[in-house]
């Protein structure tokens, strides 16, 4: 989630079993939930592949991306969020939607610290770090080298428009777009090229 100020409110889940459910969003400087339009685009790209996927939502913020994935048929989702207020709001939303303790798991930690732990391979990683920090290359490298990605994993990335983060050579761009100041892109991992 990029860092700009937003007011408290709600985010709507737009598809799947939880369609029209509202997520409570606290007032946190810099919290920027992924827009409905971008989520719709991403999950249209992933629709034929999403069933049963193991999802990792790093820098989860509101958790809208991971919850949208679960709503549309992903098998499980691990949410990683360091901000105490955002993590508490996410936990309450997951409980209200009856996603905790399964198929969701919430980890209250810095993404970098979490990625130093024991890895579990994921089929889809949602990577939307704070835009004010240059975390893309370091996080991508750790995902790739640390055993966090399934052999043919998908990686969704949001970054400032006009910025192309340095990513592992074996991540192939599948689709991309731009919405205002945001570049969004979906990559596919090719383990044989790593």
From TrEMBL:
CDD domains: AdoMet_MTases (cd02440)
Enzyme Commission number(s): 2.1.1.171
UniProt keyword annotations, A-Z: Methyltransferase, rRNA processing, S-adenosyl-L-methionine, Transferase
Catalysis performed (reactions): guanosine(966) in 16S rRNA + S-adenosyl-L-methionine = N(2)-methylguanosine(966) in 16S rRNA + S-adenosyl-L-homocysteine + H(+)
Domain of life: Bacteria
Pfam families per record: Cons_hypoth95
Keyword Metal-binding: no
InterPro entries, A to Z: RNA_MeTrfase_RsmD (IPR004398), SAM-dependent_MTases_sf (IPR029063)
Keyword Hydrolase: no
GO MF entries: 16S rRNA (guanine(966)-N(2))-methyltransferase activity
Function: Specifically methylates the guanine in position 966 of 16S rRNA in the assembled 30S particle.
Family: Belongs to the methyltransferase superfamily. RsmD family.
NCBIfam families in alphabetical order: 16S rRNA (guanine(966)-N(2))-methyltransferase RsmD
Protein name: Ribosomal RNA small subunit methyltransferase D
